[in-house]
């Protein structure tokens, strides 16, 4: 460790060691947020509150004295908040608005664990994770609630190449994650070719993440569900914010146009084409390493001068119209865009030649939803939606006088009808129907020699589902069971997919969870590294054809145990997952199987473990994941199984977040995991312009280690406005981690080893004003 890195680490340790001395204790009579006070009372009296988020929104109260009985404490809370605190039993208390009419459409899954790792992250009773960006605290390396970076802090979720466009949930590939934006599937998840989430977190209300036991309302996504939900309710007053960091500038606003109409808006644009920051430089080097963009020498030893321009933006909007107390109309729209243009110049036969290349990537998603609350027990909603994704690239080879045009398009349209019947308190019955049609086009056009390929596939799917959710009055038993029936008319195939989620609390502080599901999906991504989009984007969407590209099917079962008492959470979950119908082209092989078409499966056995201890100002956690992930292809490796490209046997995170006075926050964390798998050439085999490889994925690169730090400070401005400053350091020890190793054959028949490396030390800074 050099002197500079030691000084940085020493500075961080000093901050943590002496921060308690600098903290100032507030007077007991000062009002604090109700959510903060509820957490204190839960720990003090060993009870649990249940409520809808909007019920306690913007509510404040004094902190009751510690020597008061619980009954008197509840009276104080009712007096300060105007809410009703209804005692269900000796351990559970429901919070309701006075004379509140709870309609079926307003039913929310109750929170089981709040402040999971940090504030703004919680779990519900079915084992799913809920992230609330508005309440987000702080995580190491993050100063803003980047949606897809945040969920990678959860056990069992990581990225083998350090991006948000390749998130591996329990060993799956990224295309096996169903990502929804207010109910509409999106096919593009990243900016800057995967280093930044493509979703503005400041507009999102809740992010729902499920790894197993998902609801029957969800089709697709054999590895996980990432459901990004916008605010469903009209707010009483205007709110918004504007800010920037070293990569982009962004703004968000919620504008009540009347008591019945509200407009929600968000916009974000990169500043990278206007100014080069240290963060941009690190991102650029990471994304474009070993590509045409940074390779300034041609195969003919001619020097090529390149000038590139890169930018991205995303916009989002939601229009809310309460037609009546029982009828609501919602319209949402988002557009995600990336653009890269670059100019090549070189001298050919003493003549200056120039050519222009570029790539654009865009996803437009929109939906309109009508909700009807027929009575206090029954509600229905219907949604019409569409999602259009396109990836266009033009690659001009100035040396070989060749131009390649490529296009990948996805058009996904559909309708969803859902009903919710509240049979009685604690018993809900959900039924629904979904019809959607997906069309995928892949085009390649070469001018020298002339070649054109244009392949289009269309598939229509009908789905019926039914689900029953039962919660006992004591809240100790929760059962959700359902089934989804998918019919693919083109293939005349019917797939039945049961889902189950069961949890039981026992001995007051212990809980057991049993989850299981069968799922399927018809869209996937193939990876063609030798004929990709300018060497930058190699993934393109394809559609199942029931022959060379089958329907992907998964089955998964897990059992977990949780202990939660006195701000100590211990969680362990073992699982078994198998996914059938994957193709070799979707796995990104860079060894002897790189050009092979084959169909197989992978199987994962694993354990996710977490221990999280929260003190008054400190939250510390240790998470560990163990997994064994193996491929099995009948036509590859003599039919013998071999390690998956996403096989990370061990992954461990040790981190902490510290808060001083609710305004100043620090987070420091260390991530360690096993090195990624790789395939080495067989040194004992003869070589003749073709690499002879050893056992597939038989070796690993060095272990991955990364230490991150972040800090934010919130301060009051005029009126209700608040300012927030954030500073982060990603990989503060500047460790060089190898993410991927592969080999190529040179013109002189020698072999070169290519190492793709992770981000080095990457600083970031943010400033935001909320009002």
UniProtKB/TrEMBL annotation:
Acyltransferase among keywords: no
Compartment annotation: Cell outer membrane
Residue ranges constituting the TonB-dependent receptor plug domain according to the UniProt record: 148-221
SUPFAM superfamilies named in the record: Porins (SSF56935)
InterPro entries: Beta-barrel_TonB, Beta-barrel_TonB_sf, FecR_C, Plug_dom, Plug_dom_sf
Main location: membrane
A cellular component term, taken from the record's GO annotations: cell outer membrane
Keywords assigned by UniProt, alphabetized: Cell outer membrane, Membrane, Receptor, TonB box
Keyword Membrane: yes
Protein FecR C-terminal domain location: 30-93
Residues of the TonB-dependent receptor-like beta-barrel domain: 329-718
Family: Belongs to the TonB-dependent receptor family.
Name of the protein this chain belongs to: TonB-dependent Receptor Plug Domain
Species annotation: Dokdonia pacifica
């Amino acid at each position: 460790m050099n002197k500079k890195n030691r000084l940085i680490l020493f500075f961080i340790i000093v901050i943590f060691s002496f921060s308690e001395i600098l903290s100032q204790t507030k007077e007991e009579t000062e009002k604090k947020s109700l959510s903060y006070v509820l957490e204190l009372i839960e720990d003090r009296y060993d009870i649990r509150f249940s409520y809808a988020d909007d019920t306690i929104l913007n509510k404040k109260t004094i902190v009751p004295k510690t020597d008061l009985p619980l009954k008197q404490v509840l009276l104080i809370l009712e007096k300060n908040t105007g809410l009703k605190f209804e005692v269900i039993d000796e351990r559970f208390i429901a919070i309701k608005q006075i004379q509140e009419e709870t309609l079926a459409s307003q039913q929310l899954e109750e929170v089981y664990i709040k402040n999971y790792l940090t504030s703004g992250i919680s779990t519900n009773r079915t084992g799913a994770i809920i992230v609330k960006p508005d309440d987000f605290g702080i995580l190491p390396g993050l100063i803003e609630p980047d949606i897809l970076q945040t969920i990678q802090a959860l056990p069992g979720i990581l990225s083998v190449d350090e991006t948000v466009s390749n998130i591996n949930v329990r060993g799956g590939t990224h295309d096996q994650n169903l990502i929804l934006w207010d109910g509409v599937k999106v096919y593009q998840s990243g900016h800057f070719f995967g280093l930044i989430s493509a979703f503005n977190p400041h507009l999102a209300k809740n992010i729902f993440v499920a790894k197993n036991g998902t609801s029957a309302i969800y089709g697709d996504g054999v590895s996980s569900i990432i459901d990004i939900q916008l605010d469903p309710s009209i707010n009483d007053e205007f709110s918004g914010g504007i800010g920037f960091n070293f990569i982009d500038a962004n703004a968000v606003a919620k504008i009540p146009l009347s008591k019945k109409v509200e407009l929600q808006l968000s916009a974000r644009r990169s500043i990278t084409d206007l100014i080069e920051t240290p963060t941009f430089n690190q991102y650029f080097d990471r994304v474009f390493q070993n590509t045409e963009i940074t390779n300034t020498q041609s195969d003919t030893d001619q020097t090529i001068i390149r000038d590139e321009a890169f930018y991205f933006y995303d916009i989002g909007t939601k229009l809310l119209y309460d037609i009546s107390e029982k009828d609501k109309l919602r319209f949402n729209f988002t557009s995600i865009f990336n653009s890269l243009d670059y100019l090549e110049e070189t001298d050919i036969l003493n003549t200056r030649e120039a050519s222009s290349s570029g790539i654009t990537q865009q996803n437009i998603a929109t939906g309109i939803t009508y909700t009807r609350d027929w009575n206090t027990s029954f509600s229905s909603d219907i949604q019409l939606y569409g999602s259009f994704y396109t990836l266009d690239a033009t690659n001009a080879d100035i040396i070989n006088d060749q131009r390649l045009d490529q296009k990948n398009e996805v058009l996904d349209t559909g309708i969803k009808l859902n009903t919710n019947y509240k049979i009685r308190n604690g018993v809900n019955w959900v039924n629904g129907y979904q019809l959607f049609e997906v069309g995928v086009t892949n085009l390649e056009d070469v001018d020298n020699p002339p070649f054109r390929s244009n392949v289009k596939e269309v598939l229509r799917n009908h789905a019926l589902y039914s689900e029953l959710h039962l919660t006992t009055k004591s809240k100790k038993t929760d059962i959700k069971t359902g089934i989804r029936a998918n019919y693919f008319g083109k293939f005349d195939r019917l797939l039945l997919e049961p889902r189950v989620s069961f949890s039981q609390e026992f001995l007051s502080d212990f809980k057991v969870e049993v989850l299981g599901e069968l799922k399927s999906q018809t869209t996937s991504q193939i990876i063609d590294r030798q004929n990709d989009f300018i060497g930058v984007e190699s993934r393109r969407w394809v559609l199942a054809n029931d022959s060379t590209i089958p329907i992907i099917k998964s089955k998964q079962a897990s059992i977990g145990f949780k202990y939660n008492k006195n701000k100590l959470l211990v969680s362990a979950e073992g699982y078994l997952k198998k996914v059938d119908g994957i193709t070799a082209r979707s796995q990104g092989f860079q060894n002897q199987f790189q050009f092979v078409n084959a169909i197989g499966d992978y199987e994962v056995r694993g354990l996710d473990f977490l221990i999280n201890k929260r003190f008054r100002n400190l939250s510390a956690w240790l998470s560990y994941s163990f997994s064994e992930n193996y491929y099995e292809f009948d036509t590859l490796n003599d039919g013998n199984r071999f390690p998956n490209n996403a096989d990370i046997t061990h992954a461990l995170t040790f981190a902490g977040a510290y808060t001083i006075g609710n305004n100043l926050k620090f987070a420091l964390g260390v991530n360690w995991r096993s090195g990624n798998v790789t395939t080495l050439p067989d040194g004992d085999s003869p070589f003749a312009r073709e690499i002879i490889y050893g056992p597939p994925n038989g070796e690993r690169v060095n272990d991955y280690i990364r230490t991150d730090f972040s800090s934010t400070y919130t301060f009051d401005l005029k009126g209700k406005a608040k300012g927030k400053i954030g500073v982060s350091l990603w990989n503060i020890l500047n460790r060089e981690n190898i993410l991927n190793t592969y080999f190529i054959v040179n013109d002189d028949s020698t072999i070169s080893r290519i190492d793709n490396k992770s981000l080095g030390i990457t600083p970031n800074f943010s400033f935001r004003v909320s009002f």
